[in-house]
Amino acid sequence: MIVAVGGRPFTGKSTLARALADALSGVLLDTTTVRKALFPTVVEAPPEVTDWLYEGLLKAASWTLETTPGAIIVLDGRPLTRKRDVQALQRFAAHLGHTLQLIECVCPADLVAERSRSAATGAGGLPAEPVDNGTDPIPEPKVVVDTSHPPERCVSVALDGVGHLLSMHGARPAAATSAPP
Fold first, then answer.
1. Which of 5, 94, 128, 134 measures 20 to 30 Å from 86, CA to CA?
2. Which long-range contacts (CB under 8 A, 24 or more apart) does 16-20 make?
């Protein structure tokens, strides 16, 4: 099973992906961690490097799903705000014969701006305002998580949303990380 976390910049994708991978006892694959390991001085990678890193994540996902029966991949690699990216991911999952669940992170614009400013202050070199070069809506079916809520609630909403797939997959989330909404 592949759970792909998407959304516009600074909506909490990586934070939710990490917590969700823990809750699902899944394998977290994210481009930011790989980029920082391979290119520690690069603050924001050019698109061709990001594409290359994402392809690597997909290869890692494919290998993990083939060699580890029952594995759950939590993918934090693209915003998924481009229709072509979602379609490519859907084809990838179908080719592997695995279920794909899309999770879209959303939050109010003022919180996005606050997170962006905080990241710029902490990382030096990040844009002060999130860059939006145009987006497409993430298509249904998807689970929408408002990340302005506490992390425990966000994880709970995401787990509730993927629950039907987990039961089909024979997986159960770790009980300690789930909290009531």
1. 128
2. 16/103, 16/105, 16/145, 16/147, 16/151, 16/154, 16/155, 16/158, 17/74, 17/75, 17/76, 18/76, 19/151, 19/154, 19/155, 19/177, 20/74, 20/103, 20/155, 20/158, 20/159
